[in-house]
Sequence to fold (354 residues):
Amino acid sequence: MSNLPLQQWIKPEVLDQAPYRIRLSGYRHKMNQNESPWDWPEQIKKEVTNRLAEVEWNRYPPLVPLELRARLAEYLRLSPEMILLGKGSNEVLAALTKVVLRPGDRMCTLAPTFPVYRMLGEQMQSQIITSDLDSAYAVDEADLLPKTAAARLTILCNPNSPTGNLMSLDLIEKVAATAEGLVIVDEAYYDFSRVTAIGLLDKYPNLVVTRTFSKACGLAGFRLGYAVMHSELAVQAQKGLLPYNIDVPSLIAGQTILDYRQLVDDHAGNIVQERDRMINRLIELTGVRTWPSQANFFLLETPAGPGETFSALAGKGILVRDVSAYPGCSNAVRVTVGAPHENDALIDVVAELA
Ligand code: PMP
Fold:
């Protein structure tokens, strides 16, 4: 307990929140944060650092990162005015919640899902409404639609984390068509599912799609993400970001790797193959359960339970995510698909627990 009068200084919604935490231990194989297992090749890193050495470090970055926005617009085949860039997609999500939610407003999301949505909504003093996934981690459409229809803001993660399930575009369209408020579809794992709601943006101006450079693009060490939406909405959402939010190194890294999209797509294709190979091997083991996933991670249950599974893997230098505190995931850990030798190492440990 603190001796400080924190109640006088800090909002109760924040005092009541648990800090965002991640369980760490020393590791050889990092399979806990859905990052890419492949670092960028030396020659491409040099290209980034050479470009960084050429610019003036004493100058602010551009107020609106026009060059990166234009390059992204070309890749997405959208107008640049529809793109809002942030320090990771987290920052774009924070800006959107900030400009949309007033105290008491309803914000709807799934349970379980990425916990940052709730954290942001609570800090805006909104009322969090959740639609529980069923026992197979599928979305319950009949439960979801009335909730999203009545929400000022809906945030859907597709594919969802930590479960890996994918909602159909038909359902997303129904949500957008029936919602009076805004609907954000977080496509952080799009590169693995290849299913996107971007095609619905023309028809539904209340729809926003967010993406990140942190996962398949292998740039989590820089902080870069973006949202695409109607251009008039983007002007308003921009007001939720602080000026000069994205630093020059992140801009340069983002611009550079857009020249190497093929490498990103090839790696994502390998991860998808590895994911399916792992799941096929793991489900043959007695008492081991996994769930189908359209992302670069999947949920895993072993007869040992989540705590022991985490510890047994950590003992062999393999770090996974203990998600047993997430609603509906009490027996599970989340495994990020790694490079083939890392995946083999994980399968060997799980085989000993079966
Ligand atoms: N959305 C989802 C579903 C995520 O899993 C993450 C990262 N854990 C993010 C958004 C945020 O990613 P970033 O801020 O690195 O773009």
Q: What stands out?
A: The pocket of 4'-deoxy-4'-aminopyridoxal-5'-phosphate is lined by residues 34, 88-90, 114, 157, 161, 186, 188, 212, 214, 220, 225 (CB under 6 Å). The first helix runs from residue 6 to 9. Residues 6-40+262-353 form a domain with the Aspartate Aminotransferase, domain 1 fold (CATH 3.90.1150.10).
